[in-house]
Each structure stands twice: as structure tokens, then as C-alpha cells.
């Protein structure tokens, strides 16, 4: 069986070998050079993906096919973080040029530039798109009122080193942030720290799942799940290699993770059993995220590619066409639905967009 004419791959797993249909590779991110490695991918409610690239040109792509839609031009340095708002009408980016930018995601126009004192690593919209949260190397969280662009942002201090990831949670009533080997929970109204978790090493990724208020963390070989409301632990798994990112399927049946050994791992969420593992990238994987509908997941790697993987192998979806022996596949027209788009932007990220995602 072939999918869009692509050659099938064999899974490398503790279980009997299976056939995995190859993932489309998104090469808007130039070859595998240090200046163009993908480290983060995003998945929002309408399945737009946004990946981050070191040469500073965020790209919008079709979520189910990876087709290029447009590029945001304006940053003068590597783009480290990016996000889309709830209805995918606006995008925000965080960059090494000491700025965060807000964009019109439909026209591609730059709407505003928010100057910072150091490299900006992370951005996140509130659900109503009225506020933008930023964090970066100056150790401060900033909250910008996008309806008052001239107003000074509110600032929250407490981290002792650069902030890698910051996210709104609990209906925008609270804020989560990492790193300095901690994850901290803040109250939005009072801007006071509610609770913090300390680790013996840096937190490599952080993702927020609104359904169930679950926080997904990775550090070292550990994939950990905590309550986003209290930071209390739920469960954790140990992987055979250092893990840089993990994503929980929308139905919470299983999760995928990737890291330094170039492999992707799939685990049963209830039992922690490793279901399969396989290679496709030629460099460390820096981010993995499921699409909002759970039909596929994206992985971004230091090899300069962002890859899309089918969750249920052999199912017709997006670029994947299930063709029976003797049948000849007919090309299908690309989808025009805004519900299946992907935004790719930044330097070191392949980050998933499903209303709040990762570090």
C-alpha cells in the first residue's frame, strides 16, 4: 500500500515490525544547518501549524498537508517562539532581535512591534486575544494590553534565569512559566506566585491541556504530568533517551515524545507502556505536537525539517490516501478550509497548536 506515492517505512519498535506510512516533510526550513533547525511546532484549535526557524521568517502552512500559505517578514533575528490566537486571525512571534511582534494572520501584515531588553523566547495570547504574554532572557514575564499599544506592560519577576516558556491557563486566570529549573504558577489578577516546582535539571518543554487542566513537562528522560491548577503530580514515565518534547493525544489514550536519539516514542497514557518507537529524522527532535483533531502529529528536528505523521496508519486523511492493491490514486484538490492550516515560524521550534502548547 502506498500513500501519495511515498515509500513506506518500517517501525523500529519492541513489538513486531509494522509498516508506517511516511510523513510529509516540510522543507520550507532549509537544509540541516545550525541556522535553520526546527525546534518547535504548534497546533491550535483549527489545525494551523507554525514552526520556528533560525533565519527569522515565520511561515503559515496548511495543517493537513503542510502546503505553504505565506511568510511573515519583519524580524531581524532568529524567531524562538510563535503562536496563533483562538480564531487564527492573529499571530505573535518572539525573536532574538529583542522584539515580539503581532501579525494579521490573514493578510500577513505586521500589526505591532513590542520592544524588549533582551531576547524574547515565548509568546501566548489570551483566549479573547486582548492580551499577549511574553517571556525571555531578561527573566521577566510581561503582559501587554493589545488594545492599548502605547501602555507599558505589566511585569512579573521571580525567575532567576531566562524564561523558556510561558502560557496562559485556567481560563486566563493563571500563568505558567519555566525555566531556571523551575515551573511556576502565577495568579493573573494579583501577579503573585501561587506555587512552584523545582527540578535538578532544566525543563525542556511545557505544554498545557485545557481539557482536564493537565500540564505536560519533559526534563531529562522524564515525561511528567501535573495538575495545571495546583501543580500536584499526576503520573510520570521514563524514556530510554533524553526527551525534549511530549504531546498528549486529545482523547488522552496515548502520547508521543521525541528527543536526542532522533526517535519518536508512543506510550499508552494509562499504563505507561511503550507502544512503538521509530526513526525518521536525522537529528535530535526538539518538539512534537498532536493536531487538535488527533489525526496527525508534527515533529520538528535539528535536521531542519518539520514532519507530519499519521496517527492511524492507512487512513485517508490530508496527504495520506489509502489505496487498495490494483487501484490508482487520483490526486485531490488542496483543502481551502481554515480548519486545517499550519503556521510555521521561528528558529528552533516545531511546536503544536492546540490551544496552549509547549516550551
Automatic annotation (TrEMBL):
The segments carrying the WD repeats are 72-113, 113-154, 278-310
Residue ranges with Basic and acidic residues bias: 1-12
Determine if Repeat is one of this entry's keywords: yes
Keyword terms of this UniProt record: Kinase, mRNA processing, mRNA splicing, Receptor, Repeat, Transferase, WD repeat
Q: Which Pfam families match?
A: WD40
Q: Output one GO MF annotation.
A: RNA binding
**Which SUPFAM superfamilies does the record cross-reference, listed alphabetically?**
WD40 repeat-like (SSF50978)
In terms of Gene3D superfamilies, this protein maps to:
YVTN repeat-like/Quinoprotein amine dehydrogenase
PROSITE patterns in the cross-refs = WD_REPEATS_2, WD_REPEATS_REGION
Q: Where is this region: Disordered?
A: 1-34
Tell me the GO BP annotations in alphabetical order: negative regulation of transforming growth factor beta receptor signaling pathway; spliceosomal snRNP assembly
Where is coiled-coil annotated? none
Q: Which GO terms describe its cellular component?
A: SMN complex
May I ask which residue range the UniProt record assigns to the signal sequence?
none
Tell me if Kinase is a UniProt keyword of this record: yes
Which InterPro entries does the protein's record reference?
WD40/YVTN_repeat-like_dom_sf, WD40_repeat_dom_sf, WD40_rpt
* Assembly with partners or alone: Part of the core SMN complex that contains SMN1, GEMIN2/SIP1, DDX20/GEMIN3, GEMIN4, GEMIN5, GEMIN6, GEMIN7, GEMIN8 and STRAP/UNRIP. Part of the SMN-Sm complex that contains SMN1, GEMIN2/SIP1, DDX20/GEMIN3, GEMIN4, GEMIN5, GEMIN6, GEMIN7, GEMIN8, STRAP/UNRIP and the Sm proteins SNRPB, SNRPD1, SNRPD2, SNRPD3, SNRPE, SNRPF and SNRPG. Interacts directly with GEMIN6 and GEMIN7. Associates with the SMN complex in the cytoplasm but not in the nucleus. Also interacts with CSDE1/UNR and MAWBP. Interacts with PDPK1. Interacts with TRIM48.
The family note in this entry says: Belongs to the WD repeat STRAP family.
Protein known as: Serine-threonine kinase receptor-associated protein
* Gene source species: Dipodomys ordii (Ord's kangaroo rat)
Source species taxonomy: Eukaryota, Metazoa, Chordata, Craniata, Vertebrata
Amino acid at each position: 500500500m502506498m500513500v501519495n506515492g511515498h515509500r513506506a517505512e518500517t517501525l523500529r519498535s519492541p513489538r513486531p515490525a509494522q509498516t508506517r506510512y511516511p510523513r510529509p516533510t516540510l522543507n520550507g526550513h532549509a537544509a540541516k544547518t545550525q541556522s535553520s533547525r526546527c525546534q518547535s511546532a504548534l497546533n491550535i484549535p483549527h489545525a494551523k501549524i507554525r514552526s520556528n526557524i533560525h533565519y527569522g521568517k515565520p511561515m503559515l502552512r496548511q495543517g493537513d498537508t503542510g502546503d505553504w500559505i505565506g511568510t511573515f517578514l519583519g524580524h531581524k533575528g532568529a524567531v524562538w517562539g510563535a503562536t496563533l490566537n483562538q480564531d487564527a486571525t492573529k499571530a505573535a512571534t518572539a525573536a532574538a532581535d529583542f522584539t515580539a511582534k503581532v501579525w494579521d494572520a490573514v493578510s500577513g501584515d505586521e500589526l505591532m512591534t513590542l520592544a524588549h531588553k533582551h531576547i524574547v523566547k515565548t509568546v501566548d495570547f489570551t483566549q479573547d486575544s486582548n492580551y499577549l504574554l511574553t517571556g525571555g532572557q531578561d527573566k521577566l514575564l510581561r503582559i501587554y494590553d493589545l488594545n492599548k499599544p502605547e501602555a507599558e506592560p505589566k511585569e512579573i519577576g521571580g525567575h532567576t534565569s531566562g524564561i523558556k516558556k510561558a502560557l496562559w491557563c485556567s481560563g486566563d486566570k493563571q500563568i505558567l512559566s519555566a525555566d531556571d529549573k523551575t515551573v511556576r504558577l502565577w495568579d493573573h489578577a494579583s501577579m503573585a506566585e501561587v506555587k512552584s516546582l523545582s527540578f535538578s535539571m532544566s525543563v525542556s518543554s511545557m505544554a498545557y491541556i485545557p481539557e482536564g487542566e493537565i500540564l505536560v513537562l519533559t526534563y531529562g528522560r522524564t515525561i511528567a504530568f501535573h495538575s495545571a491548577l495546583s501543580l500536584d503530580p499526576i503520573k510520570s514515565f521514563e524514556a530510554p533517551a533524553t526527551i525534549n518534547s511530549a504531546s498528549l493525544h486529545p482523547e488522552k489514550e496515548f502520547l508521543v515524545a521525541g528527543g536526542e536519539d532522533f526517535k519518536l516514542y508512543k506510550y499508552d497514557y494509562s499504563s505507561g507502556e511503550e507502544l512503538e518507537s521509530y526513526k525518521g529524522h536525522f537529528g535530535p527532535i526538539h518538539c512534537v505536537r498532536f493536531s487538535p483533531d488527533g489525526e496527525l502529529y508534527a515533529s520538528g528536528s535539528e535536521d531542519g525539517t518539520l514532519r507530519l505523521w499519521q496517527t492511524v496508519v492507512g487512513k485517508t486523511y490530508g496527504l495520506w490516501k489509502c489505496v487498495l492493491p490494483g487501484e490508482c490514486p487520483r490526486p485531490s484538490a488542496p483543502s481551502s478550509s481554515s480548519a486545517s492550516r499550519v503556521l510555521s515560524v521561528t528558529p528552533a521550534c516545531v511546536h503544536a497548536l492546540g490551544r496552549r502548547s509547549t516550551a
